[in-house]
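Reply to dn_fold:

You asked what the input looked like. This is it:
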Amino acid sequence: MSSSAQQGPAWTNPRATVRPQPAPVKQIPPKKIAVRTIGTVDDVQLPLLPVAPPLSCTEWRDPMSSAVGWLVVDRRVNGISGGGTFLWHGATAEETRGIARTMSKKFAICPKPIGGAKAGIRCDLKDPVERRAVLRRFLQSMRSELKERWVTAGDFGTSDAFIDQTIRELTGNSMQWALYRQTAGDEAKALRLSARAPDLYRVNMSEALLDADARRPEFEMPFVEAAVGFGIVQSTLATYTKLEPRRIGLEKPLEGVRIAVAGAGAVGTGVMLYASRLGAQIIAVSDGEGLLFDSRGLDVERMLRLRARFVSRLPEEQRLHAGKLLFKYVANSCYAPERLVTRASLEAESPELSRFVEPLLSHMLRNAEAANVFVPAASRYHWNVMAAEMATQGLWKCAAPRLLVAGANNVFGAPGDDGNGVGLPPAEADSTEILKRMCEQGVVHVPDFRANGGTAQLFHCHAAGELDWILDGAPTGVPVLSREDQNLALHATSHRIRKAVLEDLDLCDPDCLDLPHRAEIRVAKQLADL
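and this is what came back:
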Protein backbone atom coordinates (compact mmCIF):
# COMPACT_ATOMS: atom_id res chain seq x y z
CA MET A 1 0.00 0.00 0.00
CA SER A 2 1.30 3.43 -0.85
CA SER A 3 2.08 5.97 1.85
CA SER A 4 -0.71 8.16 0.50
CA ALA A 5 -3.18 5.40 1.09
CA GLN A 6 -1.80 4.66 4.53
CA GLN A 7 -2.31 8.26 5.52
CA GLY A 8 -6.05 8.02 4.80
CA PRO A 9 -8.21 9.92 2.34
CA ALA A 10 -7.23 13.31 1.02
CA TRP A 11 -8.12 16.27 3.22
CA THR A 12 -11.44 17.90 2.50
CA ASN A 13 -12.91 21.00 4.08
CA PRO A 14 -16.09 20.14 5.96
CA ARG A 15 -17.16 23.84 5.71
CA ALA A 16 -17.15 24.40 2.69
CA THR A 17 1.87 61.84 2.66
CA VAL A 18 4.11 63.28 0.23
CA ARG A 19 5.63 60.62 -1.85
CA PRO A 20 9.16 60.75 -3.27
CA GLN A 21 9.53 60.29 -6.98
CA PRO A 22 10.26 56.73 -8.13
CA ALA A 23 13.92 55.84 -8.39
CA PRO A 24 15.37 54.91 -11.76
CA VAL A 25 15.47 51.22 -12.57
CA LYS A 26 17.91 49.30 -14.73
CA GLN A 27 17.37 46.05 -16.57
CA ILE A 28 20.10 43.48 -15.96
CA PRO A 29 20.76 41.13 -18.89
CA PRO A 30 20.05 37.50 -17.92
CA LYS A 31 22.93 35.09 -17.64
CA LYS A 32 23.48 32.41 -20.24
CA ILE A 33 21.59 29.19 -19.68
CA ALA A 34 23.31 26.57 -17.55
CA VAL A 35 22.54 22.92 -16.96
CA ARG A 36 22.29 21.31 -13.55
CA THR A 37 22.79 17.63 -12.81
CA ILE A 38 20.79 16.41 -9.86
CA GLY A 39 22.72 13.21 -9.33
CA THR A 40 21.99 9.53 -9.76
CA VAL A 41 19.36 7.26 -8.31
CA ASP A 42 19.45 3.50 -8.74
CA ASP A 43 22.50 3.91 -10.99
CA VAL A 44 20.39 5.77 -13.53
CA GLN A 45 21.33 9.31 -14.51
CA LEU A 46 18.46 11.58 -13.61
CA PRO A 47 17.18 14.07 -16.14
CA LEU A 48 19.14 17.26 -16.38
CA LEU A 49 17.09 20.18 -15.13
CA PRO A 50 17.86 23.35 -17.11
CA VAL A 51 18.60 26.34 -14.94
CA ALA A 52 17.11 28.85 -17.33
CA PRO A 53 17.89 32.54 -16.91
CA PRO A 54 15.16 34.55 -15.22
CA LEU A 55 12.59 36.23 -17.38
CA SER A 56 13.74 39.60 -16.05
CA CYS A 57 15.94 41.15 -13.36
CA THR A 58 15.30 44.79 -12.56
CA GLU A 59 17.84 46.64 -10.44
CA TRP A 60 16.82 49.63 -8.31
CA ARG A 61 19.05 52.14 -6.54
CA ASP A 62 17.63 54.23 -3.74
CA PRO A 63 18.02 57.95 -4.44
CA MET A 64 18.14 58.74 -0.72
CA SER A 65 20.52 56.08 0.68
CA SER A 66 23.03 53.46 -0.41
CA ALA A 67 20.34 50.74 -0.60
CA VAL A 68 20.13 48.61 -3.73
CA GLY A 69 17.27 46.31 -4.69
CA TRP A 70 16.26 43.79 -7.30
CA LEU A 71 13.00 42.40 -8.60
CA VAL A 72 13.66 39.07 -10.28
CA VAL A 73 10.91 37.38 -12.26
CA ASP A 74 11.83 33.74 -12.84
CA ARG A 75 8.79 33.08 -15.02
CA ARG A 76 5.20 34.13 -15.50
CA VAL A 77 2.35 31.64 -15.53
CA ASN A 78 -1.17 32.74 -16.35
CA GLY A 79 0.27 36.20 -16.80
CA ILE A 80 1.59 36.78 -13.30
CA SER A 81 4.38 35.86 -10.88
CA GLY A 82 4.73 35.97 -7.13
CA GLY A 83 7.29 36.09 -4.35
CA GLY A 84 7.99 38.00 -1.16
CA THR A 85 10.19 41.02 -0.55
CA PHE A 86 13.15 40.68 1.82
CA LEU A 87 15.51 43.34 3.19
CA TRP A 88 18.85 42.85 4.90
CA HIS A 89 22.45 44.02 4.76
CA GLY A 90 23.74 40.99 2.82
CA ALA A 91 21.16 40.76 0.03
CA THR A 92 22.49 40.12 -3.50
CA ALA A 93 21.07 39.79 -6.99
CA GLU A 94 22.25 36.17 -7.09
CA GLU A 95 20.39 35.36 -3.88
CA THR A 96 17.25 36.97 -5.25
CA ARG A 97 17.49 35.01 -8.50
CA GLY A 98 17.91 31.72 -6.66
CA ILE A 99 14.85 32.25 -4.49
CA ALA A 100 12.75 33.38 -7.45
CA ARG A 101 13.51 30.00 -9.00
CA THR A 102 12.48 28.26 -5.78
CA MET A 103 9.20 30.21 -5.78
CA SER A 104 8.34 28.83 -9.22
CA LYS A 105 8.63 25.34 -7.76
CA LYS A 106 6.45 26.19 -4.77
CA PHE A 107 3.67 27.66 -6.87
CA ALA A 108 3.48 24.54 -9.06
CA ILE A 109 1.15 22.86 -6.52
CA CYS A 110 -1.10 25.88 -5.84
CA PRO A 111 -4.79 25.81 -6.82
CA LYS A 112 -4.03 27.94 -9.88
CA PRO A 113 -0.26 28.02 -10.43
CA ILE A 114 1.63 31.22 -11.12
CA GLY A 115 5.27 31.96 -11.90
CA GLY A 116 7.99 32.58 -9.35
CA ALA A 117 9.54 35.94 -8.50
CA LYS A 118 11.43 37.56 -5.63
CA ALA A 119 12.41 41.03 -4.51
CA GLY A 120 15.53 41.63 -2.44
CA ILE A 121 16.88 44.86 -0.97
CA ARG A 122 20.42 45.31 0.36
CA CYS A 123 20.21 47.88 3.13
CA ASP A 124 22.57 48.44 6.07
CA LEU A 125 20.46 51.05 7.85
CA LYS A 126 19.68 50.17 11.47
CA ASP A 127 16.83 52.52 12.26
CA PRO A 128 13.45 50.77 11.69
CA VAL A 129 11.83 53.96 10.42
CA GLU A 130 14.57 54.51 7.83
CA ARG A 131 14.39 50.86 6.73
CA ARG A 132 10.65 51.12 6.20
CA ALA A 133 11.18 54.30 4.17
CA VAL A 134 13.62 52.43 1.90
CA LEU A 135 11.13 49.61 1.48
CA ARG A 136 8.36 52.05 0.61
CA ARG A 137 10.49 53.74 -2.05
CA PHE A 138 11.33 50.38 -3.57
CA LEU A 139 7.67 49.35 -3.74
CA GLN A 140 6.76 52.72 -5.20
CA SER A 141 9.23 52.16 -8.03
CA MET A 142 7.56 48.80 -8.74
CA ARG A 143 3.97 50.07 -8.81
CA SER A 144 3.28 49.06 -12.39
CA GLU A 145 4.38 45.48 -11.69
CA LEU A 146 2.28 45.35 -8.51
CA LYS A 147 -0.83 46.58 -10.31
CA GLU A 148 -0.69 44.10 -13.14
CA ARG A 149 1.53 41.05 -12.77
CA TRP A 150 3.49 40.69 -9.50
CA VAL A 151 2.15 39.64 -6.11
CA THR A 152 4.36 39.93 -3.04
CA ALA A 153 4.36 39.60 0.75
CA GLY A 154 6.57 40.01 3.79
CA ASP A 155 9.81 38.09 4.15
CA PHE A 156 13.11 38.32 5.99
CA GLY A 157 13.43 41.85 7.42
CA THR A 158 9.95 42.95 6.32
CA SER A 159 6.37 42.35 7.39
CA ASP A 160 3.15 41.44 5.62
CA ALA A 161 1.25 44.18 7.42
CA PHE A 162 3.57 47.02 6.35
CA ILE A 163 3.94 45.79 2.77
CA ASP A 164 0.22 45.32 2.32
CA GLN A 165 -0.60 48.71 3.84
CA THR A 166 2.04 50.45 1.69
CA ILE A 167 0.89 48.80 -1.53
CA ARG A 168 -2.71 49.75 -0.79
CA GLU A 169 -1.61 53.37 -0.40
CA LEU A 170 0.41 53.25 -3.63
CA THR A 171 -1.95 51.28 -5.87
CA GLY A 172 -5.35 51.23 -4.16
CA ASN A 173 -5.33 47.45 -3.81
CA SER A 174 -3.68 44.69 -1.82
CA MET A 175 -0.27 43.09 -2.23
CA GLN A 176 -2.00 40.04 -3.79
CA TRP A 177 -4.19 42.05 -6.20
CA ALA A 178 -2.96 40.52 -9.47
CA LEU A 179 -3.69 37.03 -8.09
CA TYR A 180 -7.19 37.98 -6.93
CA ARG A 181 -8.05 39.56 -10.26
CA GLN A 182 -6.81 36.59 -12.24
CA THR A 183 -8.51 33.98 -10.05
CA ALA A 184 -11.79 35.73 -9.28
CA GLY A 185 -12.79 36.26 -12.88
CA ASP A 186 -14.60 39.52 -12.22
CA GLU A 187 -13.57 42.85 -10.73
CA ALA A 188 -16.21 42.93 -7.99
CA LYS A 189 -15.17 39.59 -6.52
CA ALA A 190 -11.49 40.51 -6.73
CA LEU A 191 -12.21 43.71 -4.83
CA ARG A 192 -14.01 41.75 -2.09
CA LEU A 193 -11.08 39.35 -1.77
CA SER A 194 -8.66 42.27 -1.59
CA ALA A 195 -10.73 44.13 1.01
CA ARG A 196 -10.99 41.18 3.40
CA ALA A 197 -7.45 39.85 3.04
CA PRO A 198 -6.00 41.76 6.05
CA ASP A 199 -8.74 40.37 8.30
CA LEU A 200 -7.98 36.83 7.16
CA TYR A 201 -4.22 37.20 7.65
CA ARG A 202 -4.73 38.36 11.26
CA VAL A 203 -6.95 35.48 12.36
CA ASN A 204 -5.40 34.04 15.51
CA MET A 205 -4.25 30.41 15.19
CA SER A 206 -2.60 30.04 18.61
CA GLU A 207 -5.04 27.32 19.74
CA ALA A 208 -4.63 24.98 16.76
CA LEU A 209 -3.69 21.41 17.79
CA LEU A 210 -4.09 22.36 21.46
CA ASP A 211 -5.53 19.73 23.77
CA ALA A 212 -9.21 20.24 24.56
CA ASP A 213 -8.59 20.81 28.28
CA ALA A 214 -5.58 23.12 27.82
CA ARG A 215 -5.81 26.78 28.76
CA ARG A 216 -6.02 29.42 26.07
CA PRO A 217 -2.50 30.66 25.21
CA GLU A 218 -1.42 34.14 26.30
CA PHE A 219 0.12 34.85 22.91
CA GLU A 220 -1.21 35.11 19.38
CA MET A 221 -0.21 33.40 16.14
CA PRO A 222 -1.55 35.25 13.07
CA PHE A 223 -2.73 33.04 10.22
CA VAL A 224 -0.20 34.55 7.81
CA GLU A 225 2.63 33.47 10.13
CA ALA A 226 1.12 30.20 11.32
CA ALA A 227 0.57 28.75 7.85
CA VAL A 228 4.24 28.30 6.98
CA GLY A 229 5.23 26.60 10.25
CA PHE A 230 2.20 24.35 10.13
CA GLY A 231 3.05 23.31 6.57
CA ILE A 232 6.61 22.42 7.62
CA VAL A 233 5.27 20.30 10.47
CA GLN A 234 2.89 18.52 8.09
CA SER A 235 5.69 17.73 5.65
CA THR A 236 7.78 16.44 8.56
CA LEU A 237 4.89 14.31 9.77
CA ALA A 238 4.27 12.86 6.30
CA THR A 239 7.93 11.87 5.94
CA TYR A 240 8.25 10.53 9.47
CA THR A 241 5.17 8.32 9.20
CA LYS A 242 6.48 6.94 5.92
CA LEU A 243 9.63 5.89 7.77
CA GLU A 244 7.72 4.73 10.86
CA PRO A 245 4.19 3.66 9.81
CA ARG A 246 3.31 2.72 13.40
CA ARG A 247 2.75 6.42 14.08
CA ILE A 248 -0.20 6.64 11.67
CA GLY A 249 -3.42 7.32 13.55
CA LEU A 250 -1.78 8.17 16.86
CA GLU A 251 -3.19 11.08 18.86
CA LYS A 252 0.36 12.44 19.19
CA PRO A 253 2.06 11.13 16.04
CA LEU A 254 5.36 12.93 16.77
CA GLU A 255 5.57 11.62 20.33
CA GLY A 256 9.23 11.28 21.32
CA VAL A 257 10.57 12.84 18.11
CA ARG A 258 13.40 15.23 18.98
CA ILE A 259 13.60 18.43 16.94
CA ALA A 260 16.18 21.24 16.79
CA VAL A 261 15.25 24.54 15.16
CA ALA A 262 17.56 27.30 13.90
CA GLY A 263 15.53 30.50 13.93
CA ALA A 264 12.84 31.81 16.27
CA GLY A 265 10.92 34.11 13.92
CA ALA A 266 7.54 33.32 12.40
CA VAL A 267 8.74 30.12 10.74
CA GLY A 268 10.66 28.69 13.67
CA THR A 269 7.94 29.67 16.12
CA GLY A 270 5.27 27.87 14.14
CA VAL A 271 7.41 24.75 13.82
CA MET A 272 8.12 24.63 17.55
CA LEU A 273 4.54 25.33 18.55
CA TYR A 274 2.72 22.87 16.33
CA ALA A 275 5.35 20.11 16.45
CA SER A 276 5.37 20.18 20.25
CA ARG A 277 1.57 19.93 20.31
CA LEU A 278 1.87 16.77 18.23
CA GLY A 279 4.17 15.29 20.88
CA ALA A 280 7.63 16.32 19.66
CA GLN A 281 10.38 17.48 22.00
CA ILE A 282 12.02 20.75 20.94
CA ILE A 283 15.53 20.19 22.29
CA ALA A 284 17.26 23.31 20.89
CA VAL A 285 16.40 26.63 19.31
CA SER A 286 18.57 29.57 18.25
CA ASP A 287 17.88 33.16 17.25
CA GLY A 288 20.10 36.08 16.28
CA GLU A 289 21.49 36.51 19.79
CA GLY A 290 21.75 33.13 21.45
CA LEU A 291 20.93 29.46 21.76
CA LEU A 292 18.75 27.57 24.21
CA PHE A 293 18.90 23.81 24.56
CA ASP A 294 17.50 21.14 26.87
CA SER A 295 17.68 17.44 26.10
CA ARG A 296 14.42 16.93 28.02
CA GLY A 297 12.58 19.34 25.75
CA LEU A 298 12.09 23.09 25.99
CA ASP A 299 8.83 24.48 27.36
CA VAL A 300 7.66 26.09 24.12
CA GLU A 301 4.36 27.44 25.42
CA ARG A 302 6.08 29.19 28.33
CA MET A 303 8.81 30.68 26.13
CA LEU A 304 6.30 32.13 23.69
CA ARG A 305 4.20 33.49 26.55
CA LEU A 306 7.20 35.28 28.02
CA ARG A 307 8.19 36.72 24.65
CA ALA A 308 4.68 38.01 24.01
CA ARG A 309 4.68 39.84 27.36
CA PHE A 310 7.97 41.58 26.65
CA VAL A 311 7.19 42.46 23.03
CA SER A 312 3.79 43.92 23.95
CA ARG A 313 5.55 46.60 26.02
CA LEU A 314 7.72 47.80 23.13
CA PRO A 315 6.96 50.63 20.69
CA GLU A 316 5.28 49.44 17.50
CA GLU A 317 8.33 50.11 15.32
CA GLN A 318 10.48 47.74 17.43
CA ARG A 319 8.12 44.79 17.49
CA LEU A 320 8.97 43.29 14.10
CA HIS A 321 12.60 42.67 15.04
CA ALA A 322 11.86 41.82 18.66
CA GLY A 323 9.28 39.24 17.64
CA LYS A 324 11.98 37.22 15.86
CA LEU A 325 14.06 36.90 19.03
CA LEU A 326 13.58 34.56 21.94
CA PHE A 327 16.84 34.22 23.83
CA LYS A 328 16.85 37.65 25.50
CA TYR A 329 13.31 37.26 26.84
CA VAL A 330 13.63 33.82 28.41
CA ALA A 331 17.32 33.63 29.36
CA ASN A 332 16.75 34.86 32.91
CA SER A 333 13.32 33.35 33.35
CA CYS A 334 13.29 29.74 32.20
CA TYR A 335 16.67 28.09 32.14
CA ALA A 336 19.91 27.74 34.07
CA PRO A 337 23.02 29.37 32.57
CA GLU A 338 24.41 26.06 31.35
CA ARG A 339 21.41 25.77 29.03
CA LEU A 340 22.11 29.14 27.42
CA VAL A 341 24.80 30.21 24.96
CA THR A 342 25.31 33.73 23.60
CA ARG A 343 26.55 34.53 20.10
CA ALA A 344 29.25 36.84 21.50
CA SER A 345 30.76 34.09 23.66
CA LEU A 346 30.94 31.68 20.74
CA GLU A 347 32.55 34.14 18.34
CA ALA A 348 35.25 34.85 20.92
CA GLU A 349 35.68 31.18 21.79
CA SER A 350 36.17 29.73 18.29
CA PRO A 351 36.86 32.43 15.71
CA GLU A 352 38.52 29.99 13.31
CA LEU A 353 35.53 27.65 13.28
CA SER A 354 33.19 30.61 12.82
CA ARG A 355 34.77 31.23 9.43
CA PHE A 356 33.24 28.05 8.06
CA VAL A 357 29.98 27.49 9.97
CA GLU A 358 27.82 30.14 11.61
CA PRO A 359 28.75 30.13 15.36
CA LEU A 360 25.34 29.39 16.91
CA LEU A 361 24.59 26.77 14.29
CA SER A 362 28.00 25.17 14.88
CA HIS A 363 27.42 25.00 18.64
CA MET A 364 23.95 23.54 18.20
CA LEU A 365 25.16 20.88 15.78
CA ARG A 366 28.03 19.86 18.04
CA ASN A 367 26.23 19.93 21.41
CA ALA A 368 22.50 19.27 21.03
CA GLU A 369 21.81 15.64 21.73
CA ALA A 370 20.28 12.99 19.46
CA ALA A 371 17.89 15.08 17.39
CA ASN A 372 15.80 13.26 14.82
CA VAL A 373 14.86 16.39 12.91
CA PHE A 374 16.75 19.58 12.18
CA VAL A 375 14.83 22.56 10.76
CA PRO A 376 16.96 25.48 9.49
CA ALA A 377 14.32 28.23 9.62
CA ALA A 378 16.26 31.49 9.43
CA SER A 379 19.26 32.24 7.24
CA ARG A 380 20.10 31.06 3.75
CA TYR A 381 23.31 29.34 2.63
CA HIS A 382 24.41 28.19 6.10
CA TRP A 383 23.95 24.43 5.62
CA ASN A 384 27.24 23.39 4.05
CA VAL A 385 29.38 20.24 3.99
CA MET A 386 31.07 21.12 7.29
CA ALA A 387 27.72 21.69 8.97
CA ALA A 388 26.51 18.30 7.74
CA GLU A 389 29.64 16.65 9.15
CA MET A 390 29.16 18.38 12.52
CA ALA A 391 25.56 17.22 12.68
CA THR A 392 26.56 13.64 11.97
CA GLN A 393 29.07 13.66 14.83
CA GLY A 394 26.85 15.57 17.25
CA LEU A 395 23.22 16.51 16.58
CA TRP A 396 22.24 13.32 14.76
CA LYS A 397 24.51 10.95 16.69
CA CYS A 398 22.52 7.99 18.04
CA ALA A 399 19.34 9.32 16.39
CA ALA A 400 17.13 7.45 13.95
CA PRO A 401 15.40 8.37 11.71
CA ARG A 402 17.27 11.54 10.69
CA LEU A 403 15.63 14.38 8.79
CA LEU A 404 16.67 17.79 7.48
CA VAL A 405 13.48 19.74 6.75
CA ALA A 406 14.15 23.05 5.00
CA GLY A 407 12.26 25.76 6.88
CA ALA A 408 14.06 28.54 4.99
CA ASN A 409 14.61 28.98 1.28
CA ASN A 410 17.94 27.96 -0.27
CA VAL A 411 19.56 26.60 2.89
CA PHE A 412 22.46 24.84 1.12
CA GLY A 413 25.68 26.85 0.97
CA ALA A 414 29.43 26.76 0.45
CA PRO A 415 31.80 26.62 3.47
CA GLY A 416 32.65 30.03 4.90
CA ASP A 417 31.01 33.43 4.80
CA ASP A 418 31.43 36.79 3.09
CA GLY A 419 33.18 38.38 6.06
CA ASN A 420 29.94 39.77 7.50
CA GLY A 421 28.47 36.54 8.82
CA VAL A 422 26.55 35.92 5.61
CA GLY A 423 26.72 32.42 4.14
CA LEU A 424 28.05 31.84 0.64
CA PRO A 425 25.79 30.57 -2.15
CA PRO A 426 26.72 27.07 -3.26
CA ALA A 427 28.24 25.96 -6.51
CA GLU A 428 26.61 22.88 -8.01
CA ALA A 429 29.42 20.75 -6.65
CA ASP A 430 28.66 22.01 -3.10
CA SER A 431 24.99 21.01 -3.28
CA THR A 432 25.87 17.63 -4.76
CA GLU A 433 28.45 16.96 -2.04
CA ILE A 434 26.04 18.00 0.73
CA LEU A 435 23.37 15.59 -0.52
CA LYS A 436 25.96 12.85 -0.92
CA ARG A 437 27.20 13.23 2.68
CA MET A 438 23.66 13.28 4.01
CA CYS A 439 22.73 10.14 2.10
CA GLU A 440 25.82 8.38 3.42
CA GLN A 441 24.67 9.22 6.96
CA GLY A 442 21.06 8.20 6.38
CA VAL A 443 19.61 11.72 6.48
CA VAL A 444 16.37 12.33 4.59
CA HIS A 445 16.09 15.83 3.14
CA VAL A 446 12.69 17.48 2.60
CA PRO A 447 13.45 20.34 0.17
CA ASP A 448 12.37 23.94 0.64
CA PHE A 449 9.98 24.08 -2.29
CA ARG A 450 7.95 21.31 -0.68
CA ALA A 451 8.23 22.06 3.04
CA ASN A 452 7.86 25.81 3.46
CA GLY A 453 5.16 26.83 1.01
CA GLY A 454 2.45 27.40 3.62
CA THR A 455 2.16 31.16 3.20
CA ALA A 456 1.90 30.83 -0.59
CA GLN A 457 -0.83 28.26 -0.08
CA LEU A 458 -2.71 30.64 2.24
CA PHE A 459 -2.75 33.42 -0.37
CA HIS A 460 -3.83 31.06 -3.13
CA CYS A 461 -6.49 29.29 -1.07
CA HIS A 462 -7.99 32.68 -0.22
CA ALA A 463 -7.96 33.70 -3.88
CA ALA A 464 -9.61 30.41 -4.89
CA GLY A 465 -12.43 30.90 -2.37
CA GLU A 466 -11.41 27.92 -0.25
CA LEU A 467 -11.32 30.05 2.92
CA ASP A 468 -14.57 31.96 2.36
CA TRP A 469 -16.17 30.01 5.21
CA ILE A 470 -13.86 31.77 7.67
CA LEU A 471 -14.79 35.27 6.54
CA ASP A 472 -18.48 34.45 6.04
CA GLY A 473 -18.75 33.94 9.79
CA ALA A 474 -17.65 37.53 10.44
CA PRO A 475 -18.88 39.99 7.78
CA THR A 476 -16.58 42.67 9.22
CA GLY A 477 -13.44 42.64 11.30
CA VAL A 478 -11.09 39.78 12.15
CA PRO A 479 -12.91 36.46 12.62
CA VAL A 480 -12.48 34.56 15.87
CA LEU A 481 -12.27 30.81 15.33
CA SER A 482 -12.80 27.90 17.68
CA ARG A 483 -9.98 25.43 18.19
CA GLU A 484 -11.64 23.01 15.81
CA ASP A 485 -11.95 25.66 13.11
CA GLN A 486 -8.35 26.76 13.59
CA ASN A 487 -7.33 23.18 12.91
CA LEU A 488 -9.52 23.08 9.80
CA ALA A 489 -8.15 26.38 8.50
CA LEU A 490 -4.52 25.33 8.83
CA HIS A 491 -5.19 21.95 7.26
CA ALA A 492 -6.87 23.77 4.37
CA THR A 493 -3.62 25.63 3.65
CA SER A 494 -1.31 22.65 4.15
CA HIS A 495 -3.09 19.68 2.58
CA ARG A 496 -1.54 20.23 -0.87
CA ILE A 497 1.93 20.35 0.72
CA ARG A 498 1.27 17.11 2.55
CA LYS A 499 -0.16 15.50 -0.58
CA ALA A 500 2.85 16.52 -2.70
CA VAL A 501 5.31 15.14 -0.14
CA LEU A 502 3.37 11.88 0.13
CA GLU A 503 3.33 11.49 -3.65
CA ASP A 504 7.09 12.11 -3.74
CA LEU A 505 7.55 9.52 -1.02
CA ASP A 506 5.51 6.95 -2.94
CA LEU A 507 8.22 7.04 -5.62
CA CYS A 508 11.09 6.71 -3.14
CA ASP A 509 13.13 3.78 -1.97
CA PRO A 510 12.16 2.46 1.49
CA ASP A 511 14.81 4.59 3.20
CA CYS A 512 13.51 7.74 1.42
CA LEU A 513 17.03 9.06 0.87
CA ASP A 514 16.14 9.80 -2.75
CA LEU A 515 13.29 12.14 -1.72
CA PRO A 516 14.93 15.37 -2.96
CA HIS A 517 15.67 13.76 -6.33
CA ARG A 518 12.15 12.42 -6.75
CA ALA A 519 10.68 15.79 -5.75
CA GLU A 520 12.91 17.61 -8.26
CA ILE A 521 11.84 15.32 -11.09
CA ARG A 522 8.16 15.72 -10.29
CA VAL A 523 8.31 19.50 -9.98
CA ALA A 524 10.27 19.73 -13.25
CA LYS A 525 7.48 17.86 -14.99
CA GLN A 526 4.85 20.05 -13.33
CA LEU A 527 6.62 23.22 -14.46
CA ALA A 528 7.04 21.89 -17.99
CA ASP A 529 3.28 21.34 -18.18
CA LEU A 530 2.37 24.89 -17.14
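Residues 255-451 form a domain with the Rossmann fold fold (CATH 3.40.50.720).
Hope that clears it up.
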